[in-house]
Write a structure and sequence with these properties.
The chain has helices at residues 2-21, 31-37, 53-70, 88-93, 121-133, 159-163, 178-193, 211-216, 243-255, 257-261, 279-286, 301-316, 336-341, 368-383; strands at residues 27-29, 42-48, 77-83, 101-105, 113-114, 147-148, 151-153, 167-173, 201-206, 224-229, 232-236, 290-296, 323-329, 349-354, 357-362. It is of the alpha/beta class. Keywords: Redox-active center, Repeat, Signal.
Length: 384
Amino acid sequence: MYQVIKVIFSILPLLTLISAHEDAYSVKYTTETFSQEIGKKHHFVMFYAPWCGHCQKFAPKWEQLAEMLNDDDSNNIKIAKVDCTTDSDVCSEQDITGYPTLKFYKMGESEGIRFRGTRDLPTITTFINEQLREGEYAPDESDEPKAVSGLIELNEDNFEKHVAKGKHFVKFYAPWCGHCQNLAPTWEQLAKSLELDSDVTIAKIDCTQFRSICTNYEVKGYPTLLWIENGDKVDKYAGERNHDDLKEYVIKMIGTKKAANKREEPKVDTQSVSGEITEEDFKNNIQSGIAFVKFYAPWCGHCKRLSPTWDVLRGKFSENSLVKILKVDCTLEVNKQLCNDEEVEGFPSLYLYKEGEKVSEYSGSRSLEDLYDFVHKHTIHDEL
């Protein structure tokens, strides 16, 4: 009996450590709440045991993922967990035989899809994107995209050809994005109301499936609404997303000569000097001077809040040839290995490189002043 009590007391600190992570950001379900909630949204669920060493090691990453996705109520996905030592019935029903087991449940379905990849954030987010976009889009085999009630679904095979001539209002979106889901019926209504207008097409493209197109048009967040004329990005819509305002914008853009010529005017803004890089040009960009790099995910709430500050920071160093302010989208397949190699564990991760070597990770306040001082301090040291 003494030995049993001794073992229990020896693991109490461990159980306290586990409980510190409980319900921080992820939602904890019981046998009853699991069956009630699982069909209401897409769910990604971790089945675990508090004593499991792999679960303890993975728990902080799961909470990071939950913080990024559960932080925004408009997202149609929930990151959750089930303790199989207290709710063994649901774990038995879900055929859980090892810990941790991660399963993705699509909205309205009770059978989950087991995640079998490596448990790092880039791999996990790629898996989430694949599950969310599956079944969302069935490409038309023909070269010419066909309008459904005025709305045209584009893909990488027909996008460039479609927008090469004429005027087009295009929604760049992601299936998991809550704001995109909210806009969807209004966008369909807009397309329907302009169905007979030959001066413009209303279209959309899924950026999680056709990333190269969205990268070429410098799409940084979802939804992004771009006015494209003869293949060139002319304007980015920034108004209210109701039907009347969207339609008024279209009518204005169709009817003004300024819009037709706007693409010929040089314009310096955060879109044209975005600092976005990929694995292909990463080494070339960091090999000389100082490079301050933001590794991010477009759906991450913290990344979205940092984005305008990061753009201003880039502008402040635009005249300094020694400094580059850059960013890498870790959800893109082309950047997955890079983010793994650079040991990106959460979003956003801010790393500073000197002459091609990573020398520091920034973990301070994300205010413009503090970020600027951090980079400037390293710049002064180099100049000395």
